[in-house]
Structures are given as structure tokens and as C-alpha cells.
Write a structure and sequence with these properties.
heterotrimer, A mainly alpha, B mainly alpha, C alpha/beta, A: mainly alpha, two-stranded antiparallel sheet, C: Rossmann fold, 24% strand
Amino acid sequence: MLIPGVCAVIAVIVPSVLIHFSVIDAYTAQILTLSGINAIMALSVNIICGITGQLSLGQAGFMAIGAYSTILLTANAHLPLAVSIILAGFVTAFFGFLIGFPTLKLEGDYLAIVTLGFGEIIRVVLVNMKKWTGGPNGKQFPTILTLNPAVAYLVIIGTLALLIILVQNFVRSTYGRAVLAVREDEIAANSTGISVFRYKMLGFVIASFVAGIGGALYAPFIGFVKPEQASFTKSIDYLIFVVFGGMGSTTGSVIAAFVLTYLQEFLRFLQNYRLLIYPVILILVMIFRPQGFLGMKEFSFVNTFDRIASRISHKKTEATEEPNV
Amino acid sequence: MNTGSIFLQQLINGLSLGSIYALIALGYTMVYGIVKLINFAHGDVMMMGAYAGYFTLVAMGTTVSGSVRVTTISLLLAFLAAMIACALLALLIERFAYRPLRNAPRLNSLITAIAVELILQNTMRVLPFVGPDPRQFPTMVTKSFSLGPIAVSNIQLIVILSSALLMIALNYIVNKTRTGKAMQAVSFDLQAASLMGISVDRTIAITFVIGSVLAGAGGVLYATAYPQIDPVMGYMPGLKAFIAAVLGGIGSIPGAMLGGVILGIAETLTKGFLSSQYADAISFSILIIILLVKPAGIFGKNETVKV
Amino acid sequence: MSDEKRLVLQATDVSIVFGGLCAVSEFSCELREGELIGLIGPNGAGKTTLFNMFSGIYTPTSGQISFWDRNDDVHIINKMNPAQLNKLGIARTFQNIRLFGNLSVSDNVRIALHNLRTVAPADVLLRTPRFRRDEKMMTEKAQELLQLFKIDNKRNELAKNLPYGEQRKLEIVRALASNPKLLLLDEPAAGMNPQETEELMNMIGFIRKEFHLTILLIEHDMKLVMGICERIMVLDYGRIIASGKPEEIKSNPQVIKAYLGSEAV
């Protein structure tokens, strides 16, 4: 835990300080922080699609639940922002549990369609519950995160780092292996003592929790949220990060989120043509590199550190074998 | 007007809308049946059909004053243009976007379908002579016929009758021609069909073409009934038609027809008796309920996995 | 003699009907501790369907299946699902190998040890000492088994990259890791050459000696079946047509007729 922890702390604190002293300008800070939110969403999609193997096209719906919950908890229930954000995650997880129960009994394409449907239903409900949600115009929610780029970076990238560590800890454990077994072969997993439905639910609920946190950070950062945030289009955006990065790879998903968010900003000068280039690139990747950038490979801080360390200190003797923990 | 006649009126409206959904749903169901792909771009093929029809009508009927007159001939030609344009589009998309991914995991094809959808929508938005703004689709003079307490417009009649004709034609093709039999064979077992000497590539291409031709016609009909077109007009009807296909049993042709009609009627009844805001939510809820209760749909078969 | 051995599984008039087709019809048998029993019959006779009922994938339409767990408590297992049965003590392999392809060999085995865990999710997230102990325990147990079957040198390889014969072996090792009382092997010799089949026969004999369990084996390879099974049941069109020692089965006219047709008798 020490090595990744140290790296995480550096990656979170140093740029935040730099932003505070305007060494990194506000615009770059904005992109980095937005990438952070996108990375959290990519993490969520990767958990349910990549790690649990269930094609859910409605993660944006959970993000919206998280966003609106934060606003309602802060503005209406007058809870402090930090508490609202964490609670919003759990509220979303609860919805994940409710929605997962009937949905996860379905397979493949049908599951994709139902999750798509739920995402859209959430959107329609948000549009129609004007009293609580502000209707189709959404709700304004300016906070310290909207106004202070350094704090925004610190909080969001910090949360991202924490979530990555927790997710990796989960995956590299017996629980993670059980979920992966369900992904690999449900029938074999079932026959090996893994209760398939229970572990599908576990993956689904964790993914919805993460998406809820993503939304809960999104609203205070951007300063407002609209029902469109729950739409199918947004779910696909986050799915694309994971497909590019490698379905099943946490590292890949996070990197892809940063790269693609930056790319979308960078291509802004192409204006509307940007909207054409992006899907064309998507098709090309699907045809020529379908497994994405990293496939299922994962970057391990511990393994890399050990490899470097052993190369330095054991130049003459054989390197000792480490178990894959 | 009493509730009974309102109900019957909405029924007719629903039948009209439902016929259009059915036409588009057929494309979804046929493509899914043959290559197990949910062609998310299908709704946008319908949009392209609408635009093809639009440009034809404008080219043929623009009067000196700038307004567009619609005649029977120009409408027929609009249909033709839409169907031909969509057929060509289908061939292109199938050949360059879907065929390379035929053996890829489902997720990849799904994403490609979404990419194609984005390309179609955004191409129309950037094309200088199209653009993102909505346009008024030229309509013919509306005439209303009364059948007892209910009124049917000539447009509704055209919609219902043309849809019925196209569906009868489709039924004939699928069940009575060699091409149709080939389509059925490939949808049952691709490898066995190819071993029997059926050209799988050609059969799949034809399936896409037929589905898109129906969608193109559907696009013109939709635009005739709801005369505002824009590059994203295909999203909602496409989604609803997809729900209709699932409702009827995805892969089943009679299912798509029935599902379309049921969904159209459900939508108009909701708009008429409850609230138009919730009409969309009702459609999605139907989807969810069907998938939870009987995922195979009305006419679908439950597939069991052999262990 | 066999009456002294305790019952492990008992099927009484088990039938299953799919649509209009009766796949297994009034099947009865008794499996006792330590036995090695073969289940043979022409293709489509219902052997795998029977396995699927014993392992919880299918529910019989009629009849009863009883299983005695590790504490010798009896359960009626008709409606139990595979995960429950695995916890009770039934493990199986599959006709078409079902490994966790993208996971390592070691992981494949460790997954079967999941139900031995003492950690809660919180331990896992916070990497407590209990987590480290559990991981150590599972890794060592998996290592023991892999070493016993001589595939421990490949423990970090992805399961899908193993050669066919080793994949079959791994599937059996994984089944053994869940400490079963009854092991169901579905055509373990499928696709093997004579040398590999010989090794497999030795392996099954070894398992029977070392692990004190009951083995029920579906096979088409008659040399293997006749060579190691002490008792054989023959299925044809869902019904049991013969049951007894290998010598009896070999010369049974019904069995010959089922496999080769009536002219051969």
C-alpha cells in the first residue's frame, strides 16, 4: 500500500499547489479536473462492463442520481458538501441495488437494452419532477469547487486516486477473483461455488456507487446539472473511454479518460468536424485494435517497483519470484 | 364527443403512428435476426430517408412564390428517392462498418453501430446544404374523412395503407422467394447456410438493404405526418421502433409489425388520456416490463444455453 | 461388501422432460463412498443431462436426488443451484472445458477456495492483516494442489494459453480445490491421444487414493472406462439399460445393441 499511496499523494498534492499559485493556468486545471470526473465515470463503467462482464449502458443515469442527490442534500437538507457527496454515493448505490435486482437476471443484449431504458427513464423522471429537480433546465449549484480550481483539483483527483486504490484492492482479492470468475464463465463459476447473481449484484452496486460519486463531484464542480446528464449519449461517452483504454483494465480506462478528454478539447478548433472525426476514430479502433490500448493488462505499482528494485540490487544473482498479489 | 369515440379516434392515430414504428422496427428485427446486431444507426437511416424525400419534394414542387406544392407524383418520387438513398446507404454501412466486425464480440459491433449513428447525424449537421436547423417538410393539402364518430385524415390513410402494402410485400419476399428463404437460413445457422451454397455476404447485405428501404419509406411517412425534420429526428422514433421490435420478439417479423402497432397505440392513448410528458416514459416502461416478464417478446423464442 | 460403504448420492426414479422430449427417464442409482463409477452410453443418451441434474444446473421434473454432505447429513438436492451444491461437496468438470481463460492458473484454483475465506469486504479494501493471512492461505493451498499435479510451474500463465491436456488437468485440479465429496468428470479424456489418456487414468486413480472421494465419470473411451471403473452404468435414450462390473457390461447384448445396432448382437 505504501508505494501507490505515496505516488497518489504526490499526484494529488503537487499539481494542486501549482494550480493555487497559478503555475498551472485555470484552463489546464479545468481540463485536468474534468478528466478526473470522466475517469471516475470510466472507472464505474469498467467495473460493471470490464470486471463484472455485464454490459450496462445506463451508468450516466447513476451519475445523474448522484449529482441531483448532492444538490438536494446540500441545498434542501442543509448538509455540508463533503457529507452530501459521500451520502449521494450511497443513495446511488441503493438505486443500483434496486435496479440491479430485476435487471441482472437478463443476459447480454437484453441487459444492455434494459439498462439503456433505465437510464432514459431516470432522465424523463428528472425532467418531470420540476419541483425537486428544476425540470429540463436543470439546477444551478455553484460551490467552492466551481470557483476555486486548486480545491476542485485536489478534491476530485484526490477522490479519483482513492477510488482507484480501493477498486484495485477489491479486484486483487478473493472477492475480486469471484467477480472475475463470473465474467469469465458464469456456469463454471456457479459450479465452483460462486453464487453468480450475488456477485453480479456486488459489481453492479459498486459500479453505481462510483458513478454516484462521479455525479456527486460533477455537480459542485461544473456548477449546474441538467437531466441530459442521465442520457444514453453520455453513457456511451463513458463507455467509449473504457473501450479505448481496454475493457477490464483500470489503468487503461483512467488513462483513456484523460487522453480523450484532452483530445476533445484539443480538437475544438475543428468545430463541428470534430463530431465527425471522433466516431470515425472509434470505428477504426473497433476494426483494428478492438481490445483497446491495454486490453486487460493492468499497471501494478508494486510489481513495477519490485522489478526496478530487483534489477538494481540483484544484478548478479537470479531475481526472486514474487507471488502476484 | 364521448370517451368511446375519443378512444376510437386515438386508436386510429395510434395505428397510423404504429405503422411507422412497425416499418422501422422491421429493419431492427431483420438485422438482429440475421447477424445478432442491434443496429443503433437504423433510426438515422430513417432520418436520411426523410431528408431524401424532402429534397425531392422541394426540387419538384417549388413554386414561384417559394412554397412547395406536393402532388401525388412528387410524393411517389419522394418515396422512391428515399428508398434508393437508404438502400445505397445500407450497402455502404454494411460493407465498411459492420462486415469487418462480423466475428468480433458483440460489444464492438454495438459501439460501431453507435459510431455510425454519430457519423450520420453529424454529417448532416455539417453539410452546408443541410445544417442542424429544423426544416419544414412539404405537406399536401389535408383532407379529412369521417367514419362515423371518428375522423381520418388523408395523410393517416396514406401512412396506414403504404405501410400495409410494404409489409405485405416484405412478407412475400421473406416467405415466397429464394432470397427470403436464404435470409431465414442464414439467420438460423450462418455456417450451415454458407455450406449449402448460400452467399452469406450477399444475403446479409440484402437484409440490411430491405430493412433500410422500409426505414426510408418510414422516414418519408413520419415526416409527412410530423412535418418537421432535423438531423436528430431519428433518435426517438428509432428508439421507440427498437422497443417495438423487442416487444414483438426481436428477430420475429410479425413481432415487429405487431409490436410497432401496439407501441403506437399505447403512446397515443397515453398522450390522449394521461399526459404527453409521460408518453416517452411509458414507452420505456413497457420495454422494461417486457424484458423482465418475457424477454423473448410476444413472438420470440426462449433460447437455452447448452451446457 | 458395498453395502458397508456409506451412501453419498442416491437417485430415485429421476426424470426430466424438455418441451415434449423426455431426456432422462426414471433413473435410479446409488453412489457410495470411495467408488469409481463409469457412466456410458451413445451420444444423446442423457449422460450430461444427468450430470447437470446432479450438479444443480437442471431441476428434475420428477423423482428425488439425495446427497450426503461431509458431515453425513442428508439433503434433497433437486432444487439446489450449482453454487449451493459445490458448498455441500459436489464438484464437476465439463464436456467442453470451462476454465476462467483470462485468469491465471493459480487464480483459477484460488477461486475454488473462495468459500474458505474469513475476510469481510472491509478487510479487503483496507488490506488488513486478516486479508494477508487469507491470501497466503489460499495461495499456499492452490500451490500445493498445483504441485501435486505438476503444473505449478505454470501458475502465472493465463489459463487460455495452456496446452489442451493441461487445461483438462487444471479443470480437474480446480474441481478438487473445493474439497468435494463427489467428483463428476464429464468426458475428461475427450480429445486426448493414447498417451495422455494413460496419464489421465493414472491421475484419476491417484485422486481416488489421495482424496478419499467418490468419482462418477462419463466417458466414450472404453479402454479408460473398462480400465479404471469398478462399476459401470449404461444409459440409452434416457433410460438405464445395464449396470454392473466392466466384464458384465462388455458382453451385455443390450449394451452392444445400443452402441452398434441390433445386427451386431
